[in-house]
Structure formats: structure tokens, C-alpha cells
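Worked example (supplementary).
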Amino acid sequence: MGCFNSKFTKHSPGYEDPVKLAAETAFSVSEVEALYELFKKISSSVIDDGLINKEEFQLALFKNSKKENLFADRVFDLFDVKRKGVIDFGDFVRSLSVFHPNAPQEDKIDFAFKLYDLQCTGYIEREEVKQMLIALLCESEMKLADEVIETILDKTFQEADVDQDGRIDRDEWQKFVSHNPSLMKIMTLPYLKDITTTFPSFVFNSEVDDIAT
Amino acid sequence: LGPSMMNAFELITLSQGLNLSALFET
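After joint prediction of all chains, the assembly is encoded as:
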């Protein structure tokens, strides 16, 4: 019981027990506690309420809270598991867990499917993919003529849309990514393996006796 | 690999909004 004991630390409203979160995710207890240090930083960057709103999420991603980005919006919506318009600590840890190098590949494939299924219809439709391509071209310096975009879409759907109904279902997606493993690179964040060394201050705020667990 | 040689999803993964590693550089 020294000066640094923090058993009575006040937590934000969405805080959850690290032991429980570690049991449900690919993270160890120490990693969950280190993620809390990151979460506190992001969630207090605009409004210090212990929750990450869209502006704070964009600020963390782009260092600019006003930057509009279709994909960042989509990732935010998927992280906002309880559909409250904000990400609480439990949402943050459970969602990031999918990106852990040790997370099951199935979960990564499923998350990527949801990411591209913009309208949440259970299918990735050609129009959605076109919308995403156009959004990407708008935000980047890349310039592609409309015919080139259509050719890219034709080729992609010839390969991915096995039953040729103009949309990609979950089974088709699974087969497509198994032939194109580079698509899953964005679903693994090597940083998550080093989270305890990136945020070592978690040790001072730990409420778990054996932080090695 | 030029953009027209990639499939649509390879292109989309180039988006900065999907680069979540930036979260850790906060």
C-alpha cells in the first residue's frame, strides 16, 4: 500500500474490468490496461468524458478532427458496437482485438466484410464498391477515368462474385480473400503486440496484482 | 503495380482511413 496505489482510481462510464476484457479478447490483462492509457488519451482529446466521439476518432487517425473520410466513418460505426454514437472502453478493446496478430482469421475476414458492406445488407454490392473507389480517388492524388474504374470493378466481380448476381456474399468473400491474402493485411496491427511497451505507464495505474497475466 | 492492375479491394485498402496504426501514434 504505497503512495502509488491506485485501487480507488475513478474510471470513465464505459470502463470495464481488464480481467473480464482479457478473457473475452486476444489481449492479456496488461495489454488491456495499456490500451486504457491509449483510450484515455484519445477520449479526452476534445471532450474529457471517457468516451471517444467521431471527432476524437478522426483526430487520432488523421491529426485533424475535420477531415471527412468514408472509411474512417465506417470503422467508427463498426467500433460503436452499442450504436450510441460514441465508443466506450469495452467497445474499443473488443473491436481492436480483431486486429490483434493472434486474433482468429475468421474474425478478421468477417470484420472486413462488414467494413465493405456499407448498407449492412449482408452483401458487398457493386455500387458500394464503386462508391468506395470514388471516395478513395477523391481523397488521394490518384486519377482514374470512369472506364478504368468500371474495368477494375468488372475484373473484381468476375473473380469474387462466383454466382454472378452482382453482389458478393460472405462465402464468396471468404474464397476471394483466401486467393488475395494481401487484402487482409489491414486487419492486423503489429503495434498491438507492443502495446505494453508503447504505454508503459499502465503499470502505475494497474489495479491487478499480477500484471504479468 | 499500377492502379488499373489491382482489384478494387486492393485499391481501397490504400485508403488512409483504413490505416488504424495511426491511432497508436497519438
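Two points are worth noting when inspecting this output. Chain A has eleven helices and two strands. Chain A touches chain B through 45 residues (CB under 8 Å).
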